[in-house]
Amino acid sequence: MSNKYNLINHQLKRSKAYGAIDSFWHDLYDSEYALYDIAFLSQKEVDDIRQATNRIGAIFFKTGQLLRSLPDETLRQLDIPQKILPFIRHRALPIESVISRVDLVQTNEGLKVLELNSDTPTFEKEVFMVNGFICEEFGVRNPNEGFAEKLGMELRKALAEVLHRGKFTEKPAIVFTSHESHEEDKYTTLYLKEVANVAAKYVPLHKLTIQKGIGLFDDEGHKIDVLYRQTYPIEHLIEDVDEESGDPIGIQLLELVCSNKLLMLNPISAFLLQSKAVQSVIWGMMELDHPFFTDHEKMWIQQYFLPTYLEEDMFRKKDWKYVKKPSFGREGDTVSVFHGKTKLYEDQHKTYGHSLPVYQKYVELPTKNIKTVHGYKEAKILIGSFLINGEASGIGLRAGNQITDNNAYFLPVGIKT
Fold this sequence. Notes:
Helix content: 25-40%
Strand content: 15-25%
Structural class: alpha+beta
């Protein structure tokens, strides 16, 4: 496609539109992140995404109940780290995760789930706030209208529930935290604090201190009752040690949570579903016609899930393309695509090479021409669909490569009228 839009004009419009949005990272790592462009979905497509999200969420969350009943050895086979095992069955809420995100792809066979980001999903500010701004800019209907208010309500509900279970009667000290130096993490966390609309403060991670067996304290020495850690993954937390003393402060924090001296959201239970190996359990039980899932649930698994195994033999036998991905990995890091024994392409980063590999049937992401500040570009489209307290909520699009990585764009989405 030839450049049919004026680049200078486009850059100015983009700069003005996104410049009006407070505390938003429309450029990341000195590169364009948020596109001044819009993709369209029909109302039916939006409804289908939310129905798929609800069904997929129900399958995952039901599986969480099963995983808690499994012995430690089995959980280790799903790559659940040894260090988390003493804490992994702790249940702070009736729901597995307060905020989780289902990554979906539209295929010729309908919507398919690639993975569930249950522990520390980002993309909230883009979906629940910024998308609406850009829809207004382009004069189109926002598929996420009203969902920011619902997000705030559900966050307050989760906080009230966790405080009730923790038997807190006095005014709680609530702290939202993230790495201060990471712009996206910090402003995502501050956005969630804002929509939660509760008495709370933001304290960067490095300013929190732990007194072993007593509590977690903020930058002013006040004891924290509730810690909201939306962008701080548990697999990183369990490895945290104090630089000076060598104390395992991450483990000490989890000990505080499990002894009810600290309440934490997302809860520990969210991490149980973070391993992509969980999808091999779901697919395997469906193939075995296991009675754990109802007939309806098995139909949903066949409809929305992709064949997923802990070995690649089945894909080679059937001569299917397949994806090799780490059970705990992020942003496409350490992901590769194969056909038989031939590696077709791979992500250049190898951060998660130590993680248990999971093998999933390959599906082609749909292609769309997008407007960037440098001209038209062909990109692959991935759908991010949020589950808030287990219910389908806001949706957003990312535009990038076949392996969606850290360089993918945020592509606003509107409803086709």
